[in-house]
Design brief:
The structure holds two protein chains of two kinds. Chain A is built from ten helices and twelve strands. Chain A is an alpha/beta fold. In chain A, strands 2-1-3-4-5-11 form a six-stranded parallel beta sheet, sandwiched between helices. In chain A, helix 5 runs parallel beside helix 6, helix 5 packs antiparallel against helix 10 and helix 7 runs parallel beside helix 8. Chain A is globular and about 60 Å long. Chain B has a domain of 201 residues. Chain B contains 13 helices and two strands; from the N terminus they run αααααβαβααααααα. The longest helix of chain B is centred in the first third of the chain and has 30 residues. The chains are: A alpha/beta, B mainly alpha. At the A-B interface, strand 7, helix 7 and helix 8 of A face helix 2, helix 12 and helix 13 of B.
Chain lengths: 338, 310
């Protein structure tokens, strides 16, 4: 009896391992045929790959880089999305590292402390995380961040120009990383355009709580705001409210126009391709980490995408373009608090 | 800053958001109240809400009918309730543990179905606000109470109905007796199993509609884990409300008002760190629980499986 049980359990265990290995869809590298091994990337994402925000920006960048490098023969990537629980993410990061990926990306500032623990155990694997500048001084950790205040500034300029009530609302998640920078940039841009404008800011204390984001939007609108912005994957809740109440929305991280084509004015879209290409190049030449990168308007890592379905007055668009030029040539400086 | 917070428009704003935010809690807590009064602790509310939210959203997206969406949420809630009833009544499983299991099931399944069937974030046209003639024009009360969507009105109408059923009907008497002393109820010919099946399934239906009130009432979107802990707060609010429909109404309203208050504090610029502001409703819940738990008695048979003797 007990012998049978052991056999059964071992069979189940083996089956589970086999299934788990297949499940990740990492095609078995064909050792015999391929002369050159493809570059292999694994990425852990805090929300879904189609969140129209933070995770989607990374997923699309990976697709773009894969295409640029020449398809799946040159670069392969696997991902675990929806990892809003840091413990699960840490397990996934360790798992990918032990599977021998060339680069393991932990796409979320909440994963930092996990990565700090895991990276020293895999000195031959390169890790990257963001958004941050902190590589922990480790030779196999890259860091990347977004100068999100730049697009925030441009959005702020447009919002201040378009607002009739003179009140803007900002819905932030947690005051950290690119969210904090974006909000500061938005306020700076709005104030530079109209010193009398009021910018109300709320923080929900979460990156994913759509309900809190929606109620924050409701509150801003009741307080007189007629243009809103916000950052993190939770903002879909706020966009739903903005759409219903017909107030303007300014997006960041990804193009959010499709959610509410009538009220989304413009979006700051992240293009992590810039960072990914640099890291891949460094790794292929033997540098596994120790550097940090920033995407911004100038290096093409951040792009302002206007919603073609929103009828943006030409003088507002000109103000936005002037702001972009100013930021790129350094004539506009955005002060960030520490 | 405080003066600004106390201005009429801000107070009306707080009350109106509080009334609106309380809606999902009301559905969930009333369902849970019935369950707990019959002696069943259902910790799977969150999972039922998530599945309800997803199915309401998905069915509305596909058919364009909001009411079919509500129906779908109710049906999937009922099925979850049925499974929960089988596990707790027939298999006599430990209720806290199995509830967590149902929560994780709902969390995972709603996310999986969303990824497979919908794919990307989409918005829908949810229930519009209904302006009740005459009443909606009243100062203060009008915007607070009479400019809400239909699911909000129904939630509040459920409170007196639940009170009446629990306290004034034979069914209510049976539910209470099964929750206090199932052996005695059984000896009087009341089927403990049937009563508990009824309350658990009804709880599932209401939790499902609670989810619908979010995805097609208040938010008009679906996202993975969109309830973010509301179902667990609902369970706490049942204790908070001392297992009485009026009590859970008070608890739901208070929790939501404090939540609305902290948002307004941030908007008008009261100098409080946002992390502390966000904590306020939760801290309040814990404080009230500490006070009430020592004063009110839970249903005697709560969370105890019933096994017929002999």
């Amino acid at each position: 009896m007990s012998k049978k049980l052991y056999v059964l359990l071992s069979v189940l265990l083996v089956a589970a391992f086999v299934l788990a290995a297949c499940g990740k869809a990492a095609p078995a590298p064909s050792k015999t045929e391929a002369p050159k091994k493809p570059f292999r990337i694994a990425v852990v994402l805090p929300s879904s790959i189609n969140d129209l925000a933070f995770s989607q920006s990374m997923y699309q960048a990976l697709l773009a880089v894969q295409k640029k490098m020449g398809g799946k023969d040159a670069m392969q990537f696997v991902y675990s999305d929806g990892m809003y629980k840091v413990d699960d993410a840490a397990a996934a990061i360790r798992d990918y590292a032990s599977q021998g990926y060339d680069l393991v990306i932990a796409h979320g500032s909440q994963y930092g402390s996990s990565l700090q623990e895991i990276a020293p155990d895999f000195p031959k694997t390169s890790f990257a995380w963001g958004t941050t500048v902190d590589t922990f001084g480790m030779p196999n950790v890259f860091a990347y961040e977004a100068a999100s205040e730049e697009g925030g500034y441009v959005n702020g300029v447009m919002a201040a120009k378009l607002s009739k009530s003179g009140v803007l609302g900002v819905i932030g998640p947690i005051e950290t990383g690119d969210a904090s920078r974006y909000v500061q940039g938005f306020i700076a841009g709005a104030k530079a355009t109209n010193p009398n404008i009021k910018v109300n800011v709320t923080w929900t204390g979460s990156f994913s709580d759509v309900s809190a984001a929606a109620e924050a939007a409701n509150t801003h609108i009741s307080a007189g705001a007629d243009a809103l912005t916000g950052t993190a994957q939770m903002v879909v809740g706020a966009i739903g409210v903005a759409k219903e109440k017909n107030v303007l929305w300014f997006g960041t991280q990804a193009d959010q126009s499709s959610l509410a084509p009538n009220i989304v004015v413009a979006n700051q879209v992240y293009h992590w391709e810039v960072v990914l290409t640099k890291m891949i190049d460094l790794i292929q030449h033997g540098t596994l980490g120790g550097q940090s990168f920033t995407i911004n308007l100038k290096n093409g890592g951040e792009v302002i995408e206007y919603n073609p379905q929103y009828n943006l007055p030409p003088e507002v668009k000109k103000a936005a373009e002037d702001a972009i030029k100013g930021i790129e040539d350094g004539s506009i400086k955005i002060e960030l608090k520490k | 800053m405080l003066a600004k917070l106390l201005s009429a428009s801000v107070l009306i704003g707080i009350l109106a958001s509080g009334v609106r935010l309380a809606t999902p809690y009301l559905y969930a807590t009333i369902g849970e109240t019935f369950g707990q009064r019959s002696g069943v602790l259902n910790l799977g509310v969150e999972g039922q809400m998530l599945l309800g939210a997803f199915f309401a959203f998905y069915v509305t997206l596909v058919t364009g009918s909001l009411w079919l969406g509500v129906l779908a949420a109710a049906v999937v809630g009922a099925l979850m309730g049925l499974a929960m009833a089988f596990v707790t009544v027939n298999l006599q499983a430990e209720q806290g543990i199995s509830g967590i299991g149902f929560y994780l099931f709902g969390l995972g399944l709603s996310d999986l179905l969303f990824q497979k069937l919908v794919g990307t974030v989409k918005t829908i046209q949810g229930f519009p606000p209904i302006y009740i003639p005459v009443l909606s024009g009243l100062p203060v009360l009008g915007p607070v109470l009479f400019q809400q969507n239909i699911l909000v009105y129904v939630a509040y109408a459920l409170v007196p109905l639940a009170w009446f059923v629990l306290n004034k009907t034979t069914l209510g008497l049976k539910i209470r007796s099964v929750g206090e002393n199932p052996q005695a109820a059984d000896s009087l010919g009341i089927s403990v199993a049937a009563v508990r099946y009824y309350t658990i399934i009804q709880g599932g239906v209401l939790s499902g509609i609670a989810g619908a009130s979010l995805s097609i009432g208040l938010l008009n979107v679906f996202q993975q884990n969109m309830t973010s802990g509301m179902g667990f707060i609902a369970v706490a609010l049942v204790y908070f409300g001392a297992w009485r429909p009026l009590g859970v109404l008070g608890g739901s309203l208070l929790f939501s008002m404090v939540n609305a208050l902290q948002l307004w504090m941030q908007v008008v610029g009261v100098p409080i760190p946002p992390d502390l502001a966000v904590m306020m409703p939760y801290v309040l819940t814990i404080l009230v629980l500490m006070v009430t738990v020592s004063k009110v008695r839970a249903p005697s048979a709560l969370a105890k499986p019933f096994e017929r003797e002999g």
